[in-house]
Amino acid sequence: MPDFDAQRALRKNRIRRRGIYLLPNLFTTAALFAGFYAIVQAMNLRFDQAALAIFVAMVLDGLDGRVARLTRTQSAFGAEYDSLSDMVAFGAAPALIVYEWALKGMGKLGWIAAFVYVAGAALRLARFNTMLEVADKRWFTGIPSPAAAALVAGMVWIVDDNNIDPAGLRWWAWAVTVFAGLTMVSNVKYYSFKTINLKKSVPFLAIFVFVLVISLLSYQPAIVLFAGFVGYALRFAGIVEANEQPSHRRPLCAPRADLPFGWPAAASAAPRAQINDPLPLQYPYLSAPWPAGTSWTFTRRSEPWRST
User: If you ran DSSP here, which 8-state letter would residue 273 be given?
Assistant: First the structure.
């Protein structure tokens, strides 16, 4: 019994001494701070600073995962910490900002819209964590929470930057908030940009487009960022492509009638065998047990069957 207690105490000490990776979690902590800073600034009615803090949190949130992969410092702790940070920066903070900015005077409808957004962000993050190992890396199911937060924060930033009274835009703010919350839990596919290879060569026009975007951002950052994320949220091109499942059907085949094995002439009119039909074990590519010695010709899956 004393030996068991000693081993148990030793295991507990090892667990306590187990550390965490510093570099990626620093970025996550910075993103969490930016979300908290946005809430504080919204309470102080400095909505432009609050909206800007949301976009800063977006940049930091995009860096922590990439830094962890580049330095090979991924961990389960980092993944959970990142989800909690996202819930604050892209869930609670945008909802509180837009509520204090325009929805507060709408009564119950105002806080219901804010709650729809918060609940959508929480459900979106929970679904993302559960589907992390099986989901297609090219696509997000539902709009990502940072993009949804950019919709809300970008709207607040534009209106506040142009000194427009938000009281006249309450219903627009309500609609954008509810739309952002619902699209996070939708089944719409959004491109994840994770498959972009920065090491590949690009056309010369791509550099010019990049320079143009940087110039527009320096001129009107609020409008350009908001327009970009609105276009991303409304971009339904590629949904059909994302929902299409790859075909696993085997190539079609048909018997040859001019065989030296005495194949019956009626076989030449037989339809091609569909591979999805129940197949006997001795003839895995046929829908019927054809006689032994039959000659077959197959081509690649992308081409139709042809005989030679």
Answer: B
